[in-house]
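This section describes the prediction task in plain terms. A model, or a person checking by hand, is given the sequence of a single protein chain and must write out its three-dimensional structure as a string of tokens. No templates, partner chains or ligands are provided. The sample shown here is typical of the held-out split.
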Amino acid sequence: YFASRVYGRVELFGMDIRYESNVDGRTFNLAEPTFVVVGNLPVVLRESLLPTVQRYGEEFSRAVSELVPPGMIGPYSLESIIKDDLTIVVFEFSGRIVAGTNVYMGIGSQYSVLYFDRPMDMGERIAHELVTAAKSGRLHEVVT
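The expected answer:
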């Protein structure tokens, strides 16, 4: 996610699947998985899940603003799993650039196109927020 002070919104930015070193071996009965994360793969989420994922991001950002002023600024992640019945369970928060956004480095996130008519990676998105805030005299709102 990206919590934008400039635009007053929470942007869905990207998702990933954690890739474990030997989890595929379980499929072929070659190895028991150790769940050692060795990489991340970009994901385009099932469309029916997008409203829930967006709502979770917005509700989390709103709660943080109420409990810990000044609230969310910039990139963050809600680490989650999606169960077989398609319920989403959030188990961790990361207040930084994480793999779900970093997997788009250099090519841009497909979700950023929804906001800016072109793909952006997280570095570009942060720069865009800073430049836009500076040009409108609001830089103090996006830095702490």
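For orientation: The first strand starts at residue 2 and ends at 4.
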